[in-house]
Structures are given as structure tokens and as C-alpha cells.
Amino acid sequence: MSGREYPDRPWIGIGLLAFRGEEVLLVRRARPPREGEWTVPGGAQDLGESAEECARRELREETGVEVGPLSLVACVDIVQRDGEERDGEGRDGGGRIRFHYTIIDFAGRWTAGEPRPGDDATEVRFFSPAELEGLDLWDETLRVIAEARGRLPPA
Known about the structure:
There is one protein chain. By secondary structure, the chain is α+β, with helices and mostly antiparallel strands. It has one domain (about 10-150): Nucleoside Triphosphate Pyrophosphohydrolase (Alpha-Beta Complex), CATH 3.90.79.10. Helices cover about 15% and strands about 35% of the residues. The protein contains two helices and eight strands. Strands 1, 2, 3, 4, 5, 6, 7 and 8 form an eight-stranded mixed β-sheet that branches. The relative contact order is 0.28. The model has no long low-confidence stretch (mean pLDDT about 90).
């Protein structure tokens, strides 16, 4: 079976953007990839688990929060290379693939639970739109948050 680090295939990850009014719930990651960064709660899909079941499970495990109906928002690929060249001629575009995740993101409105960090997060909290600028978020995270806002019905 392929491990998550230096995999022989992409891993499927599922994210869930939870909104409380205009605020969005983010977690500070406790593990690679993107360790220490604020990001969307989520994780790897288990065999036999639907994407929506995974989204709700990961949100609950990482944050203690529940949401109502889900909307499919985006699909993002995260490919991180180790920077080590495979041969002396510089082939392979910057090294071996250390991580490759295909992330399917859902969005929903908060219904219950107070944010608390689970085992994959060091911090978790709701952020207002104005606070997002100071978090140094990945461009794709900002894009997906904006896309999610546009797909959910008004609060």
C-alpha cells in the first residue's frame, strides 16, 4: 500500500468549509503537509466512506463542529516535491513527489459545537473576512473560501 509521504498514487482528501454567519472555520495544521499553517479542516477519505461522510467526520474530529446541508465547492491538487533532483541533469522538475493530495472541498453552515482542536490541529477558530488577510493563507485556500461563500445560501 502507498504511504502518504512519497506515494505511488495521489491520496484523496476531503475538506469542509464551515461558515457561521460570515465567519469561516479554519484549523492550524499539526502535521505535514502545510504544518503550522491555517487551512480548511479535512483529511483522507477512508475506504468505503462517501465523500460527504468523510467531510463531516473530519470536521467533527478536527474541530468538534457540525454543519447542515453540504454544497460541493472545489477540487484542488496539492503536489509537493522534495527539491532533490533525481539525476545529475536536473530532470523530474525539482525532485521526487513527497506529497500528492487531490482535495475535494465542501461547504456548509454551522449548526452545533464550539470549536476545539482535535489531533490533527493545534488551533481552531472562526475568522471574519477581514481577519483572513493577516493569516498568510495559500492562494487556493482563499479562492475556495470565496467560491464557498458564493455557493451557500445567505445566513
